[in-house]
Amino acid sequence: MTPRLSGTGLSKIYGNLLALRDADIRVMPGEVRALIGSNGAGKSTLVKVLTGAITPTSGTVEIDGERAPLGDTREMIRRGVACIYQHANLAPSMSVLDNIFLGRQPTRRLGFVDTKRQRREAEELLQRHAIELDLDAAVGDLPTVKQKEVEIMKALALDARVILMDEPTGWLASSEVAKLHNTIQALKARGLGIIYISHVLDEIFAVCDTLTIMRDGAVIAESAVAETDRPRVVQLMVGERLARESAQAALQKRHPRGTGETRLSARNLSKKGVFEDITLDLYAGEILCITGLIGSKRTELVRTLFGSDRFDAGTLEVDGHAVSFAAPRGAIAKGIGFVPEDRHRDGLMLDMTVTENLAMATLDSYRRGVLLNRSKIAGAGEKAIKSLSIQPPEGARPVKLLSGGNQQKVLVGKWLSRAPRILILDEPTVGVDVGAKAEIYRILRHEREIGAAVLIVSSDIEEVMTIADRIAVMVSGRIVAVHDADAVSRDEIIREIGGALQ
Amino acid sequence: MHVRRATIALIVFFALTISLFSLVAPRFATTSNMENLMGGFSFIAILAMGEAFPILTRGIDLSIGAIVALVGMVVFDLSLIFHVPGYVILAVALAVGALAGALNGLLIVGLRLQPFIATLATLATYRGVVYAISGRQLVPGLTTTPIADPWITGLETYFDIGGALGTDDFLPLPWFPLSFFVMLAMLAVLSVFLLRTKVGRDIYAVGGNAEAARLAGINTGRIILLAYALSGLCAAVAALLLVARLTTATEALGFGMELSAIAAAVIGGVSLSGGVGSVFGPALGAFLLGAVLLGLTLLGISQYVQQIITGLILLAAVGYDRFLLIRRQRRLAANVA
Amino acid sequence: MSETRAPEAAPDLVRHLAANALPLVIIILVVGFALAQPAFLKPDNLIGMVRQVALIGIMATCTTFVIMTGGVDLSVGPVLALSGLAAFFFLDAGYPLVIVVAAGLAVGVLVGTLNGLIIALLQLPPIIVTLATLSIVRGLALIVGGTDQHLIYDKPAYTFIGAGTLLGLPTSIYIFAFVSLLMIFVQRLTPLGLLVAAIGNNERAAVLSGHRTRLTKTIVYALSGLGAAIAGIIQSSQVHTALSTYGPFGTELDVIAAVVLGGTSIMGGTGSVAKTLLGVFFLGIVNNGMNILDVSIDIQLIAKGAIIAAALAVAAHRS
């Protein structure tokens, strides 16, 4: 049988970063193939190559045995490759109907859109997949869950032969995940090939037939799902070294509640429609991890603690004093530092140098009257580069030329020079290679040793088990459990995270 | 929803403005004043409709005033120096406008220049070309010779519809200028194009989310090119109407008009962040500006104050747009709850 | 490790050439014009050229920060006119020179601050806000000054500002040099310079780093207004006249062109006041050279447009 889709020897080089290394992937008709790997393993790059969104440096892609031109989205769509992207790819001001048929509305003579046919086809599609959507609503007015459904409809409307799903269940509710899985089974029965990218092992073991594991830009293993088990998959994903480190970390002494001094304390903190009734204490000298599914509002919670968003009800205390920050500036003055999840969007000044980025949170301390002490900044930068082992160790290099891991070290480093009393990090190792990951852990442990209170948001369960002293589990805007890391098993945490799924 | 609500607000505001001036300004609600409004602002409305396309794709076109001058000078030369028949002139004029617009698009798509910068550069270039081809100084007396070709001057015709229908006895109607009908025709064609054709939808898609449009296989470069070509084409139509009205063209024709057009488009609800707006809004926005300016003139308020009021209207328009956006986000957040 | 070293030697050369394209082009132009018309290099001509670009130059250096934050200030032309008028009326009323100059400058700072506040607090698009103030300030200037030329005579102290000479050089050149050096200094040696780049690069990150981005943006527009006011005072003093239509439409575009030619991205982020000066001189040399060679206005305008487009296309491909 000819594979629906077959990519061979695919590589992609960005500047000096090898994002994809000689990767092969195949999916047969009626097969659901899982594509898994840690963040930054190269899955998204591979997906983009397969959809034609980027042109690979080398390699070939065949659809139903026919060689497809590379880097041409239009041609890939024409050949029946559809993709549901991780981030919504919709035009927010346009209607649901227009978005479902984005770029390929059925037309009559003279390029007029056949609106009747468009509507009829959309209604049929919705009915067939038992999904309810207001076709005339503007997509931007829909809640995010509904937007995801529009994305799925968009792919289905293509009459695709291959569907790539990039973390499609990221923030779907349990009933919706089940519905999506039913849809996948139906598509499978119709002979489509599906590539399913997900972090959630439960889903992979529930819906996929085969799996492809990636690490550091390369495919490192392939297997039938039935012939493997979770521990093996996890070990392959994270690599021997990290697995070993994680085993070692388990032996490390944990410090739940640190020195016992409360640094930050939230009581019944609520923000309407976002999170509710959050009660949480963070102590000096401990690392507290908040874990949960993407969309469980962890990010929104920590942004509120940092004063970037406001809360409606409840109280927040720092060092025993009630606070209500109007802006991050207020939180920073209280000794809080924050490393955001999306370092390109919220964290770095990409065109500016490493040294300048490192100084960004501490400009006031380099003032001399109205002047800025540039040499002091350079000196502090050099010191930070050395202590964080940022590679290459050149302070004058624009930060955009650094690898993801080193960029992240810069972001963490910019707070360290303030000696933060509370350090909040949102997904600190996303898109970071294994070596840098270990170094970031080392840095965070060091901060803990010198008495900082560290709060980490992470969806990577291995990371949580490796580094946390205490673990808080968040589900749909609520904290459902807080454990001492020593007293809880990985499986228990996974069960609680998936609490909403039962 | 968003678009419709903003449009309704604009219509209401327009009606209120007209009513208010009719009450307070002497001779505002007269047929001759309405003729002034239609004759004097139809070409601004056409420019504004054209400007809507680049803005819909998240760009901007600063060169339309210069294109107006360029087309005006082409018409002047062809008619008075080369004595080319009028119907040929019309075709050439439209082609020149569309090409000048397409060149803007080419710079933006091909050389990846920012729209603001690209059209700033062509603004200077097109004005230069105007001087280069200007035949005004070549032949003595040409500057005072009016263009007499009936194909051109015919554009400045007024129709006594009231007289023809016999309604003048009980409801005197103004004489309608041809330019107003040209504007209506373009409004109809461009509206249908934007709302009903695939390419029209693609324009919204490119402006709303360029990356999504690209991934959906839309040739975004071609769409952007088309948007600027349309803007140039509309500038050419406006230039023809203007030349017909003045029966001549000068090097300074259309000076600063891009700002009026952008203002009308923004007042008409075209969002500078792309993907939101129509052509009806900008057209109405132009007449709203016109009504305010004419009304204030009739009230004896100096032109200088009118400039200030124009600026304030512009601020109010973007402010209102921003207000709608924030309210929409708030409501969305509340919906999720 | 997932990193490889890309071959660097060849692209580096190209990148360096592109990065230094403007100084190279300026040298080539100077040599070219000098060969074509030796009078180009005469001190008188060179001084005249600097004097000619002083007004645009002052406004361009002062508005560089605005463009670096991703904004734009279209209102500089009318501000120039209104500042000149304000100075005239205070002069006419017999106030001492310091008050006169302060009044002129205050107009610019006031309009700029207003621009900045609306843009920073209401988050409205800068291009539209400053377009609106362009119209509003022009209207104000016309109300205050009408269309009459307000002649300034018998005020040697005031006319010295723009028309005097010091050690053989026009005073306006000294002011231009002083303002430029001051802005370069602000960019290189004060927190403001770094903050402006940070906001243009990533405003969200700047907020999350605890910076007062709204205050910074307001200051930046106030500085731009101040630049236009300085230019307005110099101009009125230079030609002994205050007029409401000075700084005609197109002035702001010349100013922006100079800034952008100097390599400041219109999207914000990267930029340099010193390089803006290069852009100013580049445009000045092109204008002056073509004037001296007696190139007609049409070719001048076409050349200017083509040169701007070409220079920016090179810049776009560099990044």
CATH class assignment of the largest domain in chain A: Alpha Beta
Instruction: Give me the CATH superfamily of the largest domain in chain A.
Output: P-loop containing nucleotide triphosphate hydrolases
> Total number of helical segments of chain A?
17
Largest sheet of chain C: 2 strands, antiparallel
Physical arrangement of strands within the biggest beta sheet of chain C: 1-4
Overall number of domains of chain A: 3
- Counted beta strands of chain A: 22
Written account of the structure:
The complex is a heterotrimer of chains A (502), B (337) and C (319). By secondary structure, chain A is an alpha/beta fold. Chain A has three domains: 5-240, P-loop containing nucleotide triphosphate hydrolases (Rossmann fold, 3-Layer(aba) Sandwich), CATH 3.40.50.300; 241-335 and 420-502, 3-Layer(aba) Sandwich (Rossmann fold); 349-413, no CATH class. Chain A is built from 17 helices and 22 strands. Chain A has helices at 43-51, 73-78, 96-100, 115-128, 144-157, 174-189, 201-207, 230-251, 298-305, 328-333, 343-347, 354-359, 374-387, 404-416, 434-449, 461-467, 490-497; strands at residues 5-14, 17-27, 32-36, 58-63, 66-67, 81-84, 162-166, 193-197, 210-215, 218-224, 262-271, 275-283, 287-291, 313-318, 321-322, 336-339, 367-368, 371-372, 422-426, 453-457, 470-475, 478-484. In chain A, the strands form five sheets. Chain A has a six-stranded mixed β-sheet, sandwiched between helices. Chain A has a six-stranded mixed β-sheet with strand order 16-19-20-13-21-22, with helices on both faces. Chain A is globular and about 70 Å long. The model of chain A has no long low-confidence stretch (mean pLDDT 85). With 337 residues, chain B is mostly helical. Chain B has 14 helices and two strands; from the N terminus they run ααααααβαβααααααα. Chain B has helices at residues 2-24, 31-56, 64-81, 86-110, 115-133, 150-153, 161-165, 178-196, 198-208, 210-215, 220-246, 257-267, 280-298, 303-336; strands at residues 158-159, 176-177. A two-stranded antiparallel sheet of chain B has the order 1-2. Chain B is globular, with a radius of gyration of 21 Å. The model of chain B has no long low-confidence stretch (mean pLDDT 87). Chain C has 319 residues and is mainly alpha-helical. Chain C has a domain at 44-249. In chain C, strand 2 and strand 3 (169-170) form a beta hairpin. The A-B interface holds A 51, 53, 73-74, 76-78, 83, 85, 89-94, 98, 102-105, 107, 110-113, 115, 137-138, 140-141, 143-144, 154, 272-274 and B 1-3, 196-202, 204-205, 207-209, 211-219, 271, 275-276, 328, 332-337.
